[in-house]
Design brief:
This protein is α+β, with helices and mostly antiparallel strands and 297 residues long. The chain is 64% helix and 13% strand.
Length: 297
Amino acid sequence: MFSIVKNYKIFFSITIIFLLIGIGSIVTRGFNLGIDFTGGSIVDLTFENPVSVAQVRDVLKEHDMGNSIIQLENSDGKTESNSVLIRTGVVGDTELRSTMGDLQSKLGNYQIQRVEQVGATIGSELVEQAAIAIFLSWILMIAYITFRFEFKFAIAAIIALIIDVMVVLSYFSLFQMEMDSSFVAALLTVVGYSVNGTIVIFDRIRENLKIHRRSESLADMIDHSIWQCMTRTIYTVATSLFAIVSIFLFGGETIHNFSFAMLVGFASGAYTSIFLAGPMWLFLKNKKFGVTAADKA
């Protein structure tokens, strides 16, 4: 059986290297904030002939506006409409005229109902509130896990959660993927999902501690606990990823970044739960890997 705990240096090193790269990207490149954070333009059009969201988006993609929010005025559930509302990032007058010209030449004549600049729907106050919500969730998790297990279990779980959040942020910075309002929802979902897998493994470790043999090292006991949960973890992660990958591939441009954040976060959550949480708990106990239960305080 492959020992995850005794090879902790490999997993710790991989994690630290990636986090350093991610933090470097965040510091030097920052994030590609969407119109929910930065504001943008609203264009309200009425076409002579009905058009679909896909048709409008194909034209906008040619002008690097494929992530725009496109809404059809529909009351009968049809996929096409004459009235189209486009919300996009800040666009210069020249680029806007060029885009409008392409829309007319490819989709037919239209009338402009309004063109206006709008502010960000997610202000700094809402971003601050989201950060506070995540921080408070960590505090409550520490309290609950300390009550159910012990304080060192709680700290190990929160470190794993922080890593998951940083991994998602790092990916979005490295690939300059657009962050919109759905990103905040995805990040909060990742926090809830990740801690679930960690708690399952910690619960098995706690159960095995009660029957821990003196001849068995803590490292071996943690390894056995992780492998006892491996089948359940794989099934849970696989079924979740199947759904997320389907959304990512077929969900359309509007929720593409949301599903990508979920995909990265869930994969990272599985990694931290399996390869980092247990070794971190043992590390926090100030035990050398391989110490037997006889040395346990």
